[in-house]
Protein: DUF397 domain-containing protein
Amino acid sequence: MAEWRKSSYSANASDCVEVAIGIGIRDSKAPAAHVEVGAAAWTAFLAGVTRKH
Structure:
């Protein structure tokens, strides 16, 4: 079974985006569905959101 994680910034919020390594991303309000995200796409996404301008 996949281990879904949410951002530490979400605290105890129930409306958030969750991620599972090797699986993809999903909306916590609709956990039955998810979007598959490959390793290269996820790495590019993280690089984009963590880049300092």
The longest helix spans residues 39-50.
